[in-house]
Amino acid sequence: METGRRASPLVAASVTLVALVTMALGYLNKARCAGPPFDAAGRSEAFDRIKDATVCYSDIQFLWLDRGIDQHLFPYVGGAIAPDGTLTGGTVEYPVLSGLLMWLGALGSHTDAEFLAWSAVLLAPFGAVTAWMLGRLTGRVALIWSASPALVLYAFHNWELPVVATTVGAVAVMATRLPLRVRAVVAAVLLGIGFCLKLYPGAFVLPLAAHVLYANASTGRRDVRGALGVLAAAGATVGAINVPFAVVGFDGWRASFAFQGLRRVDITTNSVWYWGVRYLFETPGATPEVSTAADAAFQSAVDLLSPVLVLLSFAGALWFGRRRLAVVGTYPWVQTSAVMLTGFLLFHKVHSPQYTLWILPFFVLLRVPWQVVGAYLMTDVVVGVGVFRWFAALAAGTDASAEESLVVLGVWARTALLLVLLVVFARAAVRTPTTRRARPTARRLESEEVPA
């Protein structure tokens, strides 16, 4: 990001206010699933009945049970994973800081409705801070975040808002006037914290280190010490947060990672692996034994191919960033991070609906064509609504072919758009706030300035 350039606080405050209103709508949507009467475990009786048909499902409310959250167990320390993949003893399937947020949200809660409400109270400030930072960095374009339907659908679907805030915070820090090494170390710490929330910001440390390494590329000098400092700061942050949990309760800490590794590709994963590659392993009319063997082969192939392709996409993004260095004069770490995230979304075996919140800030920070942004957000609504309507039709035993077709269309349209974004992000310029300049004849709104 260009250093020193900021939109006015009034614009940022307006963007933040819109985000608060949007998140309030998001909470009201999710709260339709929560409330009395409750069963003996504190589960809203309406949840299972209406969560899919009315698209008010949230992982927050769902995970009130079966993770020790309702029992207020401190996460990970006494936990483990059973041979069948079931988590026990307070372990949750997310990195430790997300687990701590879940535990905090449950402390004063005795029902899933209270857990949803307190979790929203914890998460909303992160969404608001993200809006403020994006508003200051880009101006009114930040409404892509604040007024997005994705924020209504997913602000309180899972625990995504804190990790998004760390990523945007790293970009905001890099746009200050502090010395580069200082900025980069602080940004690396934020990305390390993000890794301890949802893992993916950890990948962005590599392009950030490259940005510091090639900061003086015009002189032919490389700042190796500065780049190593970035890697060390991120690594020390991750270690300081994770080591206490690993020491006190290794089995519970390890179980959160093992759970993700054991996850199968099924109707809940919303990925091209399920809606495309799976068919290569199926034989129409096959016996149950053959079908079971084919599914096992499919799952094994995905377990190998998915991480390999993700890592290859990361390597390709870093390589292309190095190529762009000669064109733009600095290593484009924000663009490279966006490409890495896009590669992850394309090739990871799971594509949960709320992942849209991860990519949304890059639509703000980078100059992405409005047509692509609009198409992606529309496609996201199709998938985000369609998949739950499909689940509802399946549960009701009614004809679900129309809903299934909608999901398939959405998944493949999103995949096509992600392929487009691989190229768009790689070549995109960074946004800066729009400004008004005096002209001899009139005053007009200038187009967004792009740093050289």
UniProtKB/TrEMBL annotation:
Q: Which Pfam families match?
A: Mannosyl_trans (PF05007)
Bilayer-crossing regions: 115-134, 141-157, 187-214, 226-250, 301-320, 326-347, 411-430
Q: Which UniProt keywords apply?
A: Membrane, Transmembrane, Transmembrane helix
Does the keyword section mention DNA repair? no
Q: What name does the UniProt record give this protein?
A: DUF2029 domain-containing protein
The scientific name of the source species is: Rhodococcoides corynebacterioides
